[in-house]
Amino acid sequence: MKHERILITGAGGQLGTVLTVELKKKYGAENVIASDLRVNPDFIGHFEVLDATDFDALKRVVLEYEITQIFHLVAILSANGEKDPMNTWDVNMKSFFNVLEVSRLHGIKKVFYPSSIAVFGEDVDMDNTPQDSNLVPLTVYGMSKVAGENWANYYHKKYDLDVRSLRYPGVIGYQSMPGGGTTDYAVDIFHKAVKHETFDCFLEASTHLPMIFIDDAIKATLELMDAPAEKISVRTSYNLSGMSFAPKDVFEVIKKTMPNFEITYKPDFRQDIANSWPNSIDDSQAKKDWNWQPNYNLENMTKVMIEKLELYYNSKLIA
Ligand code: SER
Q: Least CB-packed of 43, 61, 115, 203 within 10 Å?
């Protein structure tokens, strides 16, 4: 039987950094090819400098390594995306079209495509937002994800390409720095706490958003990709949830271990983006179809975030 050979685009990002490690454990380091616009000097293994908006470059890598699955993680996120809408649309859509086309033409078996809570916008139930909600987003990032979900469904129905997708909530992890998203305050707050700095929050204290710890995000991704095809009833993208909280909630939990930690609230343009997104998500379809169950809540996630970032900053001080 032919080995699986995995290509990850956008491997240097928040999800890619961690997913690459897990995929190497699962498929063997020799079968995982990480790619991004810039090389990470610390990366060990196969790495290709790749602009996924360049079809020929993508095709070269796919053919050279005899790729069988692509995890397409390239995207400009919500907040950064609003700074240059046309370029955001271009990068997010063109890279995905290239992945879909190279897959169709060159025998790729499976594609993973990350969608987002950013697909939701006007006229949705903000609490426990259902799978089949109206999708009228207010950001170009959200618009690109709605379009991407439909293209995924189209390639599945029309060409039988096995594209699978998750609508990630805000992902919180310690392995990379915040990357231009609206939910990224919830990563930054831990860095500031551990560095004993005051956190200036760009959202209001009571802005609830759906979130997920990185370990759960990776678990969901691998479980979705491993599920038998007949279990996948959603070919656009699955609602996915881990927890839901507001800045004041995470602040209070951090303060239990760091009583001197302080926060100020200075909402900016990202408040409007956050206001347009759900407070919490109904992911019962994922639970039903492939037994999704998260392991982390705000309390046990906070414990891990603080432990890991303390280790990171302490070792940096020593080095
Ligand atoms: N975390 C993303 C963002 O804030 C949402 O998918 O842009």
A: 43
